[in-house]
Design goal:
Largest sheet: 4 strands, antiparallel
Strand content: 5-15%
Shape: globular
Helix content: 55-70%
Strand order of the largest sheet: 6-7-1-8
Radius of gyration: 21 Å
Distance between the termini: 50 Å
Number of helices: 14
Number of strands: 8
Length: about 375
């Protein structure tokens, strides 16, 4: 159930929202235009607060999700074919939603999606807080609920087994998702969206560094085309991605108010795809470091620093040019360069390039082992 929810939310987020570009939702959005983050509606001091919140929140979610991925064994693994097809499928979904919003009543579509995201948001919140509850209350030993649910048209019965901790987590999940469903408050939106990010990074494995490079490079060009390429065709500062972003109402972005208390329409946003997709790769570098041996490699800190630099570069360019930017245009090169530099700095360049999570990593003949490091220290 967790994997189905995470997979569905990731697929919806790619095709359904401005995944690669961050924008500012100002009052001009209601009039049909979208300004870049830090537009003229925000005072410089206010925008610095927004930028700081954005640059703290996104890396924190990536870091925490990466750490949690170490303890999760039952992951959804991406194949090479999946990595190759991902940008293509995402493009089809994105353009399909563009046509749907253009020719059909968006109110009914958003209403359907609203209930859908409340449902999967419940499970994501519950799954995210469950380890915290278990840390406080301890592991439960008995099941309070042991039954099965037959879903129409599914064909098989779905087993449902819940202990006391899981029931408590589910109650909190219902409360959090219900809060968003009833109010659409920006904090509730960020609660659901943040849990999507953590669960996505925790539960998804790219399978290998090769798959990760294919996925990142593919989405690098995906971002550029749907933000800049379609803008050249549509004109007036608009694009297919921006158009869908203005019409798609779901907690698949983080919102940052430019003033407190928050004013309707005065919100900056960061699409979850700019957190989750790089997070897949950053989490894999952490698992690589752990698998090779503590102290033997330092790919993760290099890669994580690259994510922060790439995200910061996006914010800087947006602020300077006052226009929405495809974030992966800056994040992807930063991730790939820093991760391979980190691997090379510890003599594990070939080992990292050939790393697969389905097999033990191959160590280069000239790469130092953990014991060698300890001997040098001695």
């Amino acid at each position: 159930q967790r994997q189905m929810c995470i997979r569905d939310s990731i697929n919806a987020e790619y095709g359904g929202r401005h995944r690669g570009a961050m924008e500012n939702l100002t009052n001009s959005t209601l009039n049909g235009t979208v300004n870049g983050t830090g537009g003229p509606d925000g005072a410089p001091a206010d925008m610095m607060v927004v930028y700081a919140a954005l640059l703290i929140t996104a890396p924190t979610l990536v870091y925490y999700g990466s750490k949690r991925s170490l303890a999760t064994e039952d992951k959804e693994t991406m194949s090479t074919k999946d990595a190759m097809m991902f940008p293509i499928i995402g493009s089809c979904v994105l353009f399909g939603l563009f046509l749907v919003f253009k020719y059909l009543a968006k109110e009914y579509i958003n209403l359907l999606l609203h209930f859908y995201f409340i449902l999967i948001g419940t499970f994501c919140i519950a799954s995210t807080i469950l380890p915290w509850i278990e840390a406080v209350r301890g592991k439960a030993t008995t099941k309070l609920c042991n039954t099965s649910l037959k879903i129409p048209f599914y064909g098989e019965e779905l087993p449902i087994q819940l202990d006391a901790n899981e029931v408590l987590a589910f109650i909190v999940g219902v409360a959090g998702a219900g809060w968003y469903g009833l109010t659409k408050h920006w904090l509730a939106n960020n609660l659901v969206g943040g849990c999507f990010c953590i669960q996505g990074i925790e539960m998804m494995s790219l399978g290998s560094v090769f798959n990760g490079v294919i996925l990142l490079v593919g989405l690098f060009f995906y971002d550029i085309f749907w933000v800049f390429g379609t803008n050249w065709v549509m004109g007036d500062g608009n694009s297919v991605m921006v158009s869908v972003a203005k019409n798609f109402e779901a907690p698949i972005k983080l919102l940052f108010p430019k003033t407190l208390p928050a004013v309707a329409g005065q919100l900056s946003m960061l699409g979850l795809g700019d957190i989750v997709i790089p997070g897949f790769f950053v989490a894999m570098t952490l698992r690589y470091d752990v698998r090779v041996g503590k102290g033997a490699t330092r790919v993760f800190p290099f890669c994580f620093a690259g994510y922060v630099v790439g995200l910061g570069s996006t914010v800087f360019v947006m602020h300077v040019f006052q226009a929405a930017q495809p974030a992966l245009l800056y994040i992807v090169p930063a991730l790939l360069i820093t991760s391979f530099v980190g691997a090379a700095s510890s003599g594990h360049f070939k080992s990292f390039a050939n790393f697969s999570e389905e097999a033990e990593p191959k160590k280069d003949e000239d790469s130092p082992s953990p014991s060698a490091h300890s001997k040098k220290e001695d």
